[in-house]
Amino acid sequence: MAAISMLNPKAEVARAAQALAVNMSGAKGLQEVLKTNLGPKGTMKMLVSGAGDIKITKDGNVLLHEMQIQHPTASLIARASTAQDDITGDGTTSTVLLIGEFLKQADLYISEGLHPRVICEGFDKAKEKALQVLDEMK
After folding, report:
1. What pTM, to 2 d.p., does this model score?
2. Residue 77: CB partners within 8 Å, gap ≥ 6?
């Protein structure tokens, strides 16, 4: 612990379960913001900048670029989603919602006592199987 305080004396120290809860809440918060603007009946969001400029949009990419996300986990999800949009031109909101649902399931398994490493290995196996199925469909 002394090494941490030497790096940053104002850093907060969190236990594993506490850090996990904070990271899950950040991810869920981002998902809650974006889930209402998915699809043709999605709601528009109004963004007001510090200078008073107003943007009304339901485009997930615009929302993620314009929002000032402070939470590290939510910021990581936002960067992954905007990378999805940069590569394919679509899917920003869907990516956030999919990551959020994966994390909800992981949280459920962790609360049942499953170790996070086992969940990560399961996600890796699921990814390999999904890629195999996609290759077979070509």
Report:
1. 0.78
2. 27, 30, 96, 99, 100
